[in-house]
């Protein structure tokens, strides 16, 4: 069965996640081998890059406690709390801002692609350094964008 976003669980967990200083990205329900699975994806707030393991454990405990208290799912279920990962799709302005300085691959609606180092992210557009040239892309032009993992960088 395919995962589907759960508005009821999102409403239940949004405040709990916010209290830990994180942002609730998504809550999905699916069936795995006949067992209900609740997948909770959390991320750092605007301007912060990444979530450390201690914070992820803290939010996982808080989510589990709230799920136990509210008991929104009949019977047994599996709870998975994770982050979106290093190559997450950039879908919100805050995602772009957090990736300033990283190499981004952007697929545009006209089917072209641009890859460059993100140097700025505003409300309506982002600017990439593409081989020394500043290229500004409106978010409305973006079909899909993801940061690229760089190995051996000097950061």
Describe this structure in words.
By secondary structure, the protein is an alpha+beta fold. It has 2 domains: 79 residues, 2-Layer Sandwich (GMP Synthetase, Chain A, domain 3), CATH 3.30.300; 55 residues, SH3 type barrels, CATH 2.30.30.100. 24% of the residues lie in helices and 39% in strands. The strands form 2 sheets. A 5-stranded antiparallel β-sheet has the order 8-7-6-5-9. Strands 1-2-3-4 form a 4-stranded mixed β-sheet, covered by helices on one side. β3, α2 and β4 form a beta-alpha-beta unit. α1 crosses α2. The longest helix is centred in the middle third of the chain and has 18 residues. The chain is elongated, with a radius of gyration of 18 Å. 17% of the residues are buried. Keywords: Cytoplasm, Ribosome biogenesis. Required for maturation of 30S ribosomal subunits. Belongs to the RimP family.
